Amino acid sequence: MSNSYDTYVSPLSTRYASVEMKYNFSDKKKFTTWRYLWTVLAQAEKELGLDITDEQLKELQENVENVDFEAAAKEEKLTRHDIMAHVHTYATCCPTAAPIIHLGATSCDIGDNADLVVIRDAFDILLPKLAGCIKTLAEFADNHKSLATLGFTHFQPAQLTTVGKRACLWLQDLLLCEKTLSRVRCDLKFRGIKGTTGTQASFLQLFNGDYEKVRKLDEKVTQLAGFQSSYPVTGQTYPRIVDAEIVSSLSVLGSATHKMCTDLRLLAGMNEIGEPFETTQIGSSAMAYKQNPMRSERVCSIARYLMNLVNNPLNTASVQWLERTLDDSANRRLCLSEAFLAADSIMLTLQNILEGLTVFPKVISRNIDKVLPFMATENIIIAMVKSGGDRQICHEKIRVLSLQAASTVRIDGQDNDLLDRVVKDPYFAPILDQLPQLLDPSTFIGCAPNQVTYFLKEDVQPIVDKYISKIKTTATVLEI
Prior knowledge:
By secondary structure, this protein is mainly α. Among the domains are: 108-198 and 231-360 and 458-470, Up-down Bundle (Fumarase C, Chain A, domain 2); 377-438, Ribonucleotide Reductase Protein R1, domain 1. The protein is 63% helix and 4% strand. It contains 20 helices and four strands. The protein has helices at 11-16, 19-24, 27-47, 54-62, 69-79, 82-93, 107-143, 163-187, 201-206, 211-224, 241-269, 294-308, 311-318, 329-355, 361-375, 377-386, 391-410, 418-424, 435-438, 448-467; strands spanning 148-153, 156-162, 273-274, 358-359. Helix 5 (69-79) packs across helix 6 (82-93), helix 8 (163-187) runs antiparallel to helix 11 and helix 16 runs antiparallel to helix 17 (391-410). It is elongated and about 105 Å long. The two termini are 27 Å apart.
């Protein structure tokens, strides 16, 4: 007898995505949404004067959740048509209402509209998780806003920044993602009740040529489904360019999180920051000492998959011949669900990382000490000028000593001894008592702590407040 171990299942279902997102893309959610839409279609048609009884409507409502999945699968195997298979199985448990199920409708009046309900709900699951990551990362940034650390350009040591300021770079990317995702969510419309090629011809016949009733039918079903408006014109489907915009917004989230977790992996390699690592966790089957940043690696791995999904809806939208063609169907079944499941799994993993992120200040300080003498040369020159020295002479002295120290580091593998060389050179005697202050890392970080404070208050907090009632600040423990 077959079981889950001898057939393929998506890792997004078994390993990575949340229970609520998996349910949102489940057959049960889809098919019960179809039934709900058939029910509200009948309700709206009844309210607008069609001969539909209260008994029929009640029967439809009472059987929305009563889905015989096996019977529907057998029916679809015979009919090769998923919507009609479920029309028949719904009719079986609603014999009184059977004659008016799907009345006047085409498949996309049900299937496409249900897809939009699922997509809307997926955004509503995802956005609070993104806000939760933003909240936790903001707390991290605030806690470390004044902790000096090496900045890097071209992955070469550059002017100092702070751990909190760097976190704000990640935060800003996440804020831009929230803006993009929430805009796409707010722009979503219902396909509406438009008929076979979008002309509403069948509904015009049902209402004996009364176009105002056809318009009201569209509006009523749209509102009952929880949407403010529908796309004003469609072919058989809602515009497939909408799918491209949806997956594009999710792929942007993939890009932002990939960048952030790549940074964390680099910092983990430098032993400056560590992600959660359980006491029983094994980093390597051979190298027992290793503590790999596997969660950040997972985010990068899934994010790459997510970023590459965007080409599917772009291509699908580009080849929808005239009013539609069916080569969108199988692709959309894969692409839309996988994009949201991937984004959801990234948010779960990222929240878990952020809640257990550890900073190692002593390592950070040691790494600063290795290059700070070079960074302090400008401060030394200025101090000498203030003490009466000639800027050009001092610059040449520092240049020669710096090259000698660099040679000691790069060729001899020794520590940076530039300061020892400065101390031993009589030329710098006037400022030797100032060296401790000139080399204080806190004097190299500029306005970074202030920038963090204002950024968190003015830009981050409003987004956190927007979702605060829906944020779960503790991520599900990741078993795998």
